[in-house]
């Protein structure tokens, strides 16, 4: 038995010659129903869309023809027919040949029949969102580029304005080397009464009660490992000294310089050479941290952290400075063995402002070295200055600031002092055991 389903133009859409074929035909029934529903709904939708004809993607001549036909009230039905012809044709459909409707929509019917239509909708939505995201990224990139160009322009203008200033203003001039610590509150160095205990003198800027004798009696809690033992670095790397005593009475003598022959790095190098006489493994970092003076301690903290992380053997980290006061050159000397030597001062930070669990161990080391210097070279060392600031001394036991001389001392006087300081450090770290 042979069944043939035909459409208007006589085209066969299905043939079968046996009962099995009939069963297959039954399975295709949903496609035929969907096609028929699509034709009916499509025709209705096209008629409802007459008011939106100017939005359809047809050519200008078609639109003109439709407009003329629709405005002719006497031939309203003819106008509708003409409109339908044009509208259907714009979608590649012949309304007198329904198979073209089926052909145009067959991919969607097939997806629906195979339960793939929902996936198609989801994928379409994903692609739309992806495209929108890409467009958003492109727009954001354009906006960032505009902002970057504006910043470059602003920086250029600032640099041009700055370049007109004199070279004398390249560095910000300040007095004391321990006045500023990063963004902390500025605290002027004041002269308090000196507290003396045995061979040790202190100036205490904090509210803590310091038991000097107890600290001197306690052993040091320092690493005992092979490797570098001492690190010398400079938070205020450009602090300078006088070339000779004639400069002491001169005006406009700069108190900072990048010339390593006359700044604290020269004194640091001299201290290293004297420590090496005792076979002490010493490191020296000469990074300039004080181009922006108020950022000095933040900059030197990065340097110090790098060394502390790398060398767990460090017994002592010395931030080497020189002192100064506002308004005049500070000259601090003591005659040792018939020659002038610059006085030395230890500065110890506490946890009064920022956490620092190491401060008592740091103070203990400073007190022991001061006591030894007072035994060997009375008057060479000034009182230990105990500050409310932290000064990056929270990373290790044995972290100290050492100020050698002031901005009124000659470079030779400060270099000479390093010989005496090196001996006291060696005695405390190695001979006191």
UniProtKB/TrEMBL annotation:
InterPro entries: Spore_II_P. The chain crosses the membrane at residues 29-53. It comes from the Bacteria. Residues 154-192 are annotated as: Disordered. Residues 158-170 have a biased composition (Low complexity). Keywords: Membrane, Transmembrane, Transmembrane helix. This is Stage II sporulation protein P.
